[in-house]
What we know:
The structure holds two protein chains of two kinds.
Chain A: H1 2-26, E1 30-31, H2 32-41, H3 49-61, E2 65-70, E3 78-83, H4 85-113
Antiparallel strand pairs in A: 1-3, 2-3
Helix pairs in contact in A: 1-4
Chain B: H1 11-27, H2 33-50, H3 57-67, H4 70-83, E1 92-95, E2 98-101, H5 107-114, E3 123-125, E4 129-130, E5 132-134, H6 136-142, H7 160-184, E6 191-196, E7 202-207, H8 208-231, H9 236-265, H10 274-312
Antiparallel strand pairs in B: 1-2, 2-4, 3-5, 6-7
Helix pairs in contact in B: 1-2, 1-3, 1-4, 5-9, 6-10, 7-8, 7-9, 7-10, 8-9, 9-10
Amino acid sequence: xxxxxxxxxxxxxxxxxxxxxxxxxxxxxxxxxxxxxxxxxxxxxxxxxxxxxxxxxxxxxxxxxxxxxxxxxxxxxxxxxxxxxxxxxxxxxxxxxxxxxxxxxxxxxxxxxx
Amino acid sequence: xxxxxxxxxxxxxxxxxxxxxxxxxxxxxxxxxxxxxxxxxxxxxxxxxxxxxxxxxxxxxxxxxxxxxxxxxxxxxxxxxxxxxxxxxxxxxxxxxxxxxxxxxxxxxxxxxxxxxxxxxxxxxxxxxxxxxxxxxxxxxxxxxxxxxxxxxxxxxxxxxxxxxxxxxxxxxxxxxxxxxxxxxxxxxxxxxxxxxxxxxxxxxxxxxxxxxxxxxxxxxxxxxxxxxxxxxxxxxxxxxxxxxxxxxxxxxxxxxxxxxxxxxxxxxxxxxxxxxxxxxxxxxxxxxxxxxxxxxxxxxxxxxxxxxxxxx
Lengths: 114, 313
């Protein structure tokens, strides 16, 4: 049962990591290690560099994000990631899906707890 | 509502249902047969639950529409099943925790086994055979020689000239082996050590020329392959991997050849330093080649991006 619960939690994280990354980029462009730092500081998401970079590459191939090298104020140039128009649309759709699903799930769980 | 068996359905509706189920089954990926059967049975049950003996083709179609086109539905099922890490093939898996893979690999998978920045693991299962191999990209990233996202696609922006320069490394090592053999041939002992035990004591000897040819073949074959893939302008990932792989095998061969020469000049035995030294060399040389290629690809990516920004200003 413990194993199953762990598997469930990891599936849950796997499912939300995409929307989290897109959401993070909605506020503006960020470079790779900055994304990793922000995401890995939220320990409950259990996201590491090893998960972020393959995901970025997948999102880029899907045309949801784009990347460009640009001078950095300190040190060598950095690769910055930003949402594309498609990415913005996808994020809006994912956000509304998330709101409706999580709202419904919360309703169920309130009844269970109550 | 609900029917127990598809035979209870009227003919046109039954035909439509069967056609949909067959299309789903045909679209299923290479999952094991039991699982495919079970999946199709569940889809059938979903239909039967919503249908009645009086149902028409339109009823079947409207349920089918909810599920989506059969091939798309099958694709989704495949993805869901694949997420569960079900390993359908007996040709791949693990024995006592050690991975094995006996399916014939694609060229791209072979290339990515040597250099895959997307895979954080240092040791990755072999693309063919038993055990693990070193993922040089992960090593370069851990040593801070490169960022994980340095290149969008491995070696995609590496210039033809950079490939040629990198190719010089395995070619030079292979040529140096041949040169050293030709130069030293007359002074070599009749037999050279060809194998050592754990304590570095030579326990097998071969005629000098034979000992050389074995090692030379180990360097020459992958180097010829790398020259070939560069000459034929194969996909850039394959070119990079073949050069790095040749640099690795040529370093192994040259390292062992160097030990053989040093040991053959004396008693045939080698000191404890020999193998660690060769091991460092055989990792460092290909690591250098791979990293230099990836860095040149990164530089090219940067130049393109920044030129575009400059122009737009």
